[in-house]
Amino acid sequence: xxxxxxxxxxxxxxxxxxxxxxxxxxxxxxxxxxxxxxxxxxxxxxxxxxxxxxxxxxxxxxxxxxxxxxxxxxxxxxxxxxxxxxxxxxxxxxxxxxxxxxxxxxxxxxxxxxxxxxxxxxxxxxxxxxxxxxxxxxxxxxxxxxxxxxxxxxxxxxxxxxxxxxxxxxxxxxxxxxxxxxxxxxxxxxxxxxxxxxxxxxxxxxxxxxxxxxxxxxxxxxxxxxxxxxxxxxxxxxxxxxxxxxxxxxxxxxxxxxxxxxxxxxxxxxxxxxxxxxxxxxxx
Length: 284
Fold this sequence. Notes:
Its main location: membrane. By secondary structure, this protein is α+β, with helices and mostly antiparallel strands. It has 8 helices and 9 strands. The longest helix is centred in the first third of the chain and has 36 residues, at 17-52. It is rod-shaped and about 120 Å long.
């Protein structure tokens, strides 16, 4: 037997016109699939960006990166399946394996999937944005006030006043209090003794409120409001004044209102009582 006969058979098979034609056809199909996938990626990317242009603050604009990523993975996965089919690879076991793997990962990573889905809705609804002052209630309890530093797809990062950085998974959030939307309310409570002239004290609160409004004309959604007697406590009548201000200005507004109120009360001879929260002096 000629030792070169196997080599000659390989050469005959490789140079067989039908085999060459099938190979060229396969390569053409692979090129067409790759080109179609590339075109689909470019077109979908352009359409999504065009749709979301100028709407970054709306739900459609915020969720665009998520939809873009899902479309990218779907197009690439479809192209790979078509390429495997083009080279005559049975894709049924591949799809079955992918299904089983997806179910396994779904059961094993259910908390991760819960966090991701909650993150999608949180980003789409625009409940929060970076820089907001928030309070979050979740499975771990209530967090202190903190500033949102980053809204990732799986978790929320909040920087507390103490500097501590909290990472809160979206799926564990029960409700969110946002103090940076629309307006805030500055509330000032002043205690006065029971024997004090309440009418004079309320006149002092109105004068202080009018002075604040004159100094901040157009600086708030509404004029200061004298709420009157807010509470009766041991040893003190609690008077209250409030005003709506821009988010983040409530502490400054409350401090200025408090100073105006104390000056107005002093002009009327009304002395504030025991500070709220302070223990009463022991009786003789």
